[in-house]
Amino acid sequence: MNSIELKTYRIAFQEEAYKELNQLIKSHSYSSIYILVDSNTQHFCSRFLSENIEADVKIEWIEIEPGEEHKNISTCHEIWKTLSETGADRKSLLISLGGGIVTDIGGYAASCFKRGIDFVHVPTTLLGMVDAAIGGKNGVNLDSLKNQIGVINPPQLVLVDVGYLSTLPPEEMRSGLAEMLKHGLIANAEDFFAFEDLSQFQVDKLPELIRDSIQIKTKIAEEDPYEEGLRMALNFGHTLGHAIESYHMESSSKTKLLHGEAVAIGMILALKLSVEVLKFDQETCDKASRIISTYFKPVEFSEEDISNLKTYLKHDKKNSAGNINFVLLEDIGRPKINCKVSDEQIKKAFAYYKSLSK
């Protein structure tokens, strides 16, 4: 499978990706290599990566705790301490082996250490492959608020090997699927409706579908690297999705949701809001919402929950001048950014979401 050549980095696939990684290591003459993992990827994935790296310099492993609650500055501080204490310098390379949390933390830590060292992402989850490791965004959470601290800085290389997906539980695969569905909704109806009938889904087509999804994101990110306009379309479903994810992470009475699980809810809500605000076709909204609902279990929201979510909406990164901005759809493949939505319309969207589970 051919690599994707971007302005500042490459995305390489399968066996060819390891050749590109080793060529990068050789051509840059790195003084040392650090591989960042969490305890899950250390157990399930580290051996395979280590068997495929060719390097004449020392390789150090840095292990962090898994989970969204550890995606913070404290974890970065521990990484920076380890790098410093073991002699890392400006010519060191950091490879992040893991899901979106690991690559987000790794990219941010590398971008800050000694004002920036090279880094490579090796995503091991579907979410990481199609979203988190792509586009140059790296960052951490501020308490329960998602991705409030970070930088936009591209890696040297993203290595995509679908073999790592065999280590994932089903819920993690679904979490990544949410972002693939999003890419289809904002860019290409054919890509979205490819997931309409699971019985027709062929596993051997997964690398191709992943590559298609990556190309949608990279095309948008290349045109608007610093999220000044077009790139905001990638936040479809994320305004309420991030609020729902943060609320469930912080509330002791709620079950935590994976990123994709929260975004799936956010996309259904955004589809209904698109009907209310932009006259998006209701029948298409129903069809798309049913497809998303096929993959994700319904979550209950009380009136109190919906009211509490407004606090988290105020911290969304797309906001400006005190306004909460939504990405909505005029049609599939035609997103519109900076849409204003009323409280009443949000309530209608939640009522619509609830009706789907009846």
Automatic annotation (TrEMBL):
Enzyme nomenclature, EC number: 4.2.3.4
Domain 3-dehydroquinate synthase N-terminal: 62-174
Pfam families: DHQ_synthase, DHQS_C
Cofactor(s) this protein cannot do without: Zn(2+); NAD(+); Co(2+)
Transmembrane segments: none
PANTHER family: 3-DEHYDROQUINATE SYNTHASE
Protein name stated in the entry: 3-dehydroquinate synthase
